[in-house]
Amino acid sequence: MMRRGEAGDDNVEIKEHPRQANAPVGSPPHRSQFQNQSVFKNWKPWIVPLFVVVNIAVFIAVMYVNDCHSNSGSCVAPSLGRFSFQPLKENPLLGPSSSTLEKMGALDVNRVVHKHQSWRLISCIWLHAGVFHLLANMLSLLFIGIRLEQEFGFLRIGLVYVISGFGGSLLSALFIQAGISVGASGALFGLLGGMLSELITNWTIYANKFAALLTLLCIIVVNLAVGILPHVDNFAHIGGFLSGFFLGFVLLIRPQFKWINQKSCPPGYIAPQAQSKHKTYQYALWVISLIVLITGFTLGLVALFRGVNVNNKCSWCHYLSCVPTSLWSCKSQQVYCQSTELGGQLELTCLSNGKSNMYDLSNNVSSKVQLLCAQLCS
């Protein structure tokens, strides 16, 4: 953990000595007269635990809507009834079907652009593909978010989380045009990005700053490296991280020590004079970051709603999300079927393997076409 320079957590050591009767102003301080005084408010975290509860509640609601027994004959944990999981072959993360996630608000670029469902850029960060996905993200949120909320409060950390999640969804939508995407990973990477920029902009108040920087960079690099595996939306990770990184310079800025000492110095103590609350480089980073955020979000939204596929502008960018090796392929797993209505029946033909099957329309199969197609092509 990073420590505050010159003091313990959330404490600043006032190094000026009290003026004594016969002591001239500006005489050397006596260490025996040093005094610690809390100047940074220690917030009681509640927004991060609330985010965890909301994510869990949404997952339970999604599983209730999914109702595996109504769309599959081989559910995992069938004793759970409506809350049983899709077959492992379909969803190895112990969760709902992709069609249910799409119905509940998963990121689908086609729906965002052509059906004006821009709300999916936010709703998708509250959805998870399965129990394992949910547990990994919520444990990470508690580990990272609680500490940040204690230091900076619910409003600033809440904004970093939500805006970073939006930024991750936006970059993902610009690069991944097929399939759906869900998860809070972009928002979590935003918190990591905010931690990094907070360390940089408040550089002078930390002790062991180089060790803290190296540790944080290693954590970020390892987590981003995991994103090059298939079926992981690393563009959401990168977009969230960049959003949180620049937001940190704007929202997580700390006053310089001289200003803190001047404002919190008790009567009878001499504090060094500070002309401004923040250092010049902090103001510069604040302005630059705000401009980058506004420009980036504006250009990204314009490109998205104009239907721009950024992959056509950047031939190598797809390697940021998946690097093919002899162990796995990065080809899209999206399946396509041709459908034909014959009387009261629907004929589906998988375009990848040529298999076909007939389904009775009276069984409301029209709402399950994507699921039936996936089963037919598997």
UniProtKB/TrEMBL annotation:
Any stretches that span the bilayer, and where are they?
46-65, 125-146, 158-176, 182-203, 210-229, 235-253, 283-305
Concerning Pfam families, the annotation shows:
Rhomboid
- Keywords attached to this entry: Hydrolase, Membrane, Protease, Serine protease, Transmembrane, Transmembrane helix
Q: Where in the sequence does UniProt note compositional bias of the Basic and acidic residues kind?
A: 1-19
Reactions catalysed according to its record: Cleaves type-1 transmembrane domains using a catalytic dyad composed of serine and histidine that are contributed by different transmembrane domains
Membrane topology annotation: Multi-pass membrane protein
Spell out the subcellular localization from the entry: Membrane
Sorted alphabetically, the Gene Ontology BP terms of this entry are:
proteolysis
EC annotation from Swiss-Prot or TrEMBL? 3.4.21.105
- What is a single cellular component term in the Gene Ontology annotation? Golgi apparatus
Indicate what this protein is called per its UniProt record.
Answer: RHOMBOID-like protein
Which organism was this protein described from? Salix brachista
